[in-house]
Amino acid sequence: MKPFFATTNPLVLVSVMLFAAWPTSFAAAAIRNTQADEVPQQTLTDVIESQEPMVVKLFGAGVGNLDSYGSGILISEQGHVLTVWNHLINTGYLTAVTNEGRRYEVKVAGTSAAHDIAVLKLQSRDDEVFQFISPETFSDADAGDSVLAFSNMFHVATGNEPVSVVHGVISVRTPLEATQGRWVFPVRTEVLLIDAITNNSGAAGGLLTTEDGTPVGLIGREIRHKISNTWVNYAVPLSTLKPVVLNLLAGKKVESAPAETDEQAMISDQLLTSRFGITMLPNVVERTPAYVDAIVPGSTASSSGLRRGDLIVLVDDTIITCITDFQKQMAARRSGSRIVLTVNRNQQLETVTIKVP
Questions:
Q1: What CATH number does the domain located at 269-355 have?
Q2: Considering the chain, what is the average pLDDT of its residues?
Q3: Which helix (H) or strand (E) holds 319?
Q4: What does residue 310 show for φ and ψ, rounded to 5 degrees?
Q5: What is the pTM of this model?
Q6: What single string gives the DSSP state of each residue in 155-181?
Q7: Domain ranges of the chain
Q8: What are 110-143's pLDDT values in tens digits?
Q9: 47-249 maps to CATH 2.60.40.1120
Q10: Which strand (E) or helix (H) includes residue 73?
């Protein structure tokens, strides 16, 4: 009987050997693939659904062209929220709505002007527990990383609706010189510039993650580049904010940024009273709120309708966070010009116009 197969051709022999080994190799590969399939792969939908509950919708008072809504990130199971320190915080009353649609009053737990952030506290019951992102998990990101931006842009979510998600890529890490009206962006460390539109109404304070859900950035406010005057899509790295946030959660004071070399002139208390008829609350602590303590009868301030107890939150389009801000803005105005002051009066926003003497 002839053998089933016989040859002395080396090329044919190699082919036969590979063919003989093929079933075993195929079986081994199949086993490996089966084992890999046993570990579920996280999809983009999974990441989005896992991160959306960490973002809250913030609602306050809009001022002029500034929005009445924003975003924040839950950073403790007790209901602490990290957000941008913008006009919503300064107007004095704020509401937060969670992913489930629960609504809470909000108190300010701490702020850092140098980092442009605020930590808020939801006024919840003692037994309530929130899903959150621990500051200990704050990570870093670099140019070229794909990211997801979670926020309540354009007031899309008001109750239990999910917040919006934008996909993009980090273009570069760089220091940023930018402005919002007369306000100058205070952060001197590098920020993340993003090639997606995150500079949207209500997006400030939202969450930036990598595609696998790692938290890497706090979405910034609507600002323009100082030189080009173009809108900037940016986030402050959470790795930079981590020590600041941990200090604020612990109730510790955060050091202010070093004074700028071109420090702006500031009107004195005496001149503010003699020239405008305004006496402010004594400026005895750092960043004392800009409360009006007294109005001189018959003065410019009196005729404008400004009242004792008013909290000044805007001078024209410039946000006022403390008495020092107010004194700097008043010093910069020329005689004969008109100033529009936005004040928080009995939990309502009012505007008064003062003519500079």
A1: 2.30.42.10
A2: 85
A3: strand 318-319
A4: -65, 140
A5: 0.71
A6: G--SSSSPPEEEEEEEEEEE---EEET
A7: 1-39, 47-249, 269-355
A8: 999 899 999 999 999 989 999 999 999 999 999 9
A9: no
A10: strand 69-74
